[in-house]
Specification:
Elements (H helix, E strand, L loop, with lengths): L1 H16 L1 H4 L2 H18 L1 H11 L12 H12 L8 H25 L9 H30 L8 H12 L8 H26 L7 H30 L7 H4 L4 H12 L8 H30 L3
Helix pairs in contact: 3-6, 3-13, 4-13, 6-7, 7-8, 7-9, 9-10, 10-12, 10-13
Family: Belongs to the mitochondrial carrier (TC 2.A.29) family.
Membrane topology: Multi-pass membrane protein
Organism: Meira miltonrushii
Length: 309
């Protein structure tokens, strides 16, 4: 009986180790959608703080010295609901976007040899970059709406009213003006994140069996490293995505990444590019830990269910 249990455990571990090769695409996509919605919804209040801290030329009432102070002020002055304003936008966008994200990642990683034994930084980085290019094309408009609604004093009442007003006042281009900057940030972010995650996962768990603690730890570490490295690009992206609500003419007329960098440098110098870094790291450590924990967990159990195990 004990030997049968041991054999069963070994077979289950081998089955999980082969997930990269054997899991159907629809399972990867469903798991990705579930992970994306879970991550973005639970971490939304911290994301609100990160957006607020990155906005240049903010009013004194919307100037914050740190994550804790921002959380306290927003909650006491605007109410707890302000920390969730715009969450519907990411819930609508995150599911499909993350389905595309993880589906693309697994397909490209397999095609480029990333599932072979050993460390394959080039393969995982390329697969991650491919995944974010595909998913960001879908997610960018939802991200613009989200950040417009997250701003201090935002008059937008709903996702639909925000989308409608932005389109009427600024045109379709407003939803994609930050897309090149978004890619300039998310491509290196995702390349770093996936490379660090895959490396840390193999170091922490050489047998590569299903290990929630490993997925959570490796995911959090990957998120912290990638977030710190790409914060300057995230500041520029936020400037472009919220420009239509700014009272500063220079910011309102910013047309691309180069101009966003020039404005930030002119107004605040090098320190301007670190705006919101602590909030960004504080967001990405638990968010990435949760995302990878959810993704690997959903993927594991959905695959078992699909195979009738």
């Amino acid at each position: 009986m004990a030997s049968e249990t041991a054999v069963s455990a070994i077979e289950e571990e081998i089955d999980y180790e082969g997930l990269g090769d054997n899991v159907p695409l629809h399972i990867n996509m469903i798991a990705g959608a579930m992970a994306g919605i879970s991550e973005h919804a639970l971490m939304f209040p911290v994301d609100v703080i990160r957006t607020r801290m990155q906005i240049l030329s903010a009013s004194p009432a919307a100037t914050y010295t740190g994550v804790t102070q921002a959380l306290s002020r927003i909650s006491s002055v605007e109410g707890a609901r302000a920390l969730w304003k715009g969450v519907n936008s990411v819930i609508l966008g995150a599911g499909p976007a993350h389905a595309v994200y993880f589906g693309t990642y697994e397909v490209v990683k397999e095609a480029t040899g990333g599932n072979a034994s050993g460390h394959h930084f080039g393969s995982t980085a390329f697969a991650g970059a491919s995944a974010t290019i595909a998913s960001d094309a879908f997610m960018n408009p939802f991200d613009v709406i989200k950040q417009r609604m997250q701003m201090h004093g935002s008059a937008y009442k709903s996702v639909m009213s925000c989308a409608s007003q932005v389109y009427k006042q600024e045109g379709l281009r407003a939803f994609y003006v930050s897309y090149p900057t978004t890619l300039a940030m998310t491509v290196p972010f995702t390349a770093v994140q996936f490379s660090v995650y895959e490396y840390a996962k193999k170091v922490l768990n050489p047998k590569e069996g299903y290990s929630p603690l490993t997925h959570m730890t490796a995911g959090g570490l990957a998120g912290a490293v990638a977030a710190a490295v790409t914060t300057p690009l995230d500041v520029a992206k936020t400037l472009l995505q919220t420009r239509g609500s700014s009272t500063d003419p220079a910011i309102r007329n910013a047309s691309g990444m180069a101009e966003a960098f020039r404005i930030i440098t002119q107004k605040e110098g090098a320190k301007g590019f670190t705006r919101g870094m602590s909030a960004r790291i504080a967001t990405h450590i638990p968010a990435n830990a949760l995302c990878w924990l959810s993704y690997e967990g959903f993927r594991f159990f959905l695959n078992k269910r699909d195979k009738g195990l």
